C-alpha cells in the first residue's frame, strides 16, 4: 500500500491515545512483552476496537501510525535532548504510554529479547513464529493475572496453546474439531501415561508427552479428559502449576464444578464440558457449564474453539448430567437401535453388510432431517405414517415392546449414574 496515501489523513490526539491504549492492552496481556511483534491478527483486533469507538481506519493505516510512533520513540531514546519529533503532533501526550509499551517486561520473557535490534527486525513480519514460540517456563502461583486478550477476541484462537490430559476418544474427537478450525497442531500438546493412544495424535501433527505438568505449563486452555475416578489424582498433581491465565475444562462425567474448584487453586477458571463420541466426525453435541470464576468471555472462547466439533451449547450445571444420559450415553442407545434395525432386515433375508449400511444411512438421514427441518419428532413420524400402511404397523409393535418407556428409562438411568459418579468423585477429592 502507498504510504503517502496514509500520511495525508491526519490523526487527532484522542484517536492516537485510544490506539496506543489498545496496543498496550494487547501487548501487555497477550504478548507479555511490549516491544515484541505486533502481528497482523493483533492489528485486526485493534482495527475492530477502533471502529467500534467511531474511528474508521484501515489495518494498514494503523500499522503505518504505529511505525511513526515507534520511530519517534527511538529518536527520543537515541537523542534524549533533541526537540520532540515534529511529525508526531502532541508527542508529549503519548510519550509515557509509548515507554510503557516499548519498555515493559514480564518475568516469563527471556533476556534474549532485550535488544532494540530484535524489535526493529521483527516489527514488520507477520510475527507468528516470534510471538508463539518463546520459551515459557512454568509460572508459579505468584505470577500476575494475565487474562488473555483471546478471551475478548475469539478470532485470535489460532494463537492459543491447547493442552489435553488424557488421550482417549473424547480428547481425540475434540482435538480433531479444534484443528479443523484456526488452531495449529504445533499449538496443541497431549499427555497420557502410556503411548498406546498417542500415535493418532502424532499423525495429526500434535506433540505428545507423558508429563501432565508439561501440558499445563505450556497451555492456556487445558482439557482434563480422564476417567472420573482419576480426576482428583490428576488435578492434585498439576494444581500448583495452574494460574489465573489457565482455563481448565473437564470432560469427566459426573465430576462437579464444586469438586473441580476445590481441587484447584482459589479463583481458578473452570468449565465443565460434556461432549459425545460423534465429535470424532465433527457432529457432536456438546454442553458446558461455567464455574464460579469463569466469565462470559471464557465461555465464548470455548464455544469458538469447539464450534467445528458440532452443536455447542451452554447451560446450568444441573443439565450436564442430563446431557450425559441424553447425548453422551444416548449415542449408544441409537447404535443399539440401528443394530436392531439391521438385524431385523437380516432376519427377513437381506445380506448383513447391506442391511447395516442402509440402517446407518437411515439413522443419519433421519437425524439430519430432524435437525434441519426444525419439526418436532412426532410431526415427522406422523408424516411417514399412512393409514393402514407398513409404518403404523411397525410402530404399534415397537409400542407393544415398550420402546418409548425403555428409552426414557435408559436416559434416566444414565443420568443417575452420572450423578452417582459425581458423588464418588467429590468424596475422593475431599480425602486428598
Describe this structure in words.
It is a single chain. By secondary structure, the chain is of the alpha/beta class. It is built from 19 helices and 8 strands. It has helices at about 5, 15-30, 40-50, 60-80, 90-100, 115-120, 130, 170-180, 200-205, 210-215, 230-240, 255-265, 295-305, 320-330, 330-345, 350-375, 375-385, 390-400, 405-430, and strands at about 160-165, 190, 205-210, 220-225, 245-250, 270-275, 285-290, 310-315. Helix 4 (about 60-80) packs across helix 5 (about 90-100) and helix 14 (about 320-330) packs across helix 19 (about 405-430).
What would a concise description of this structure say?
The protein is built from 19 helices and eight strands.
List descriptors.
432 residues, 8-stranded mixed beta sheet, 8 strands, elongated, disordered N terminus
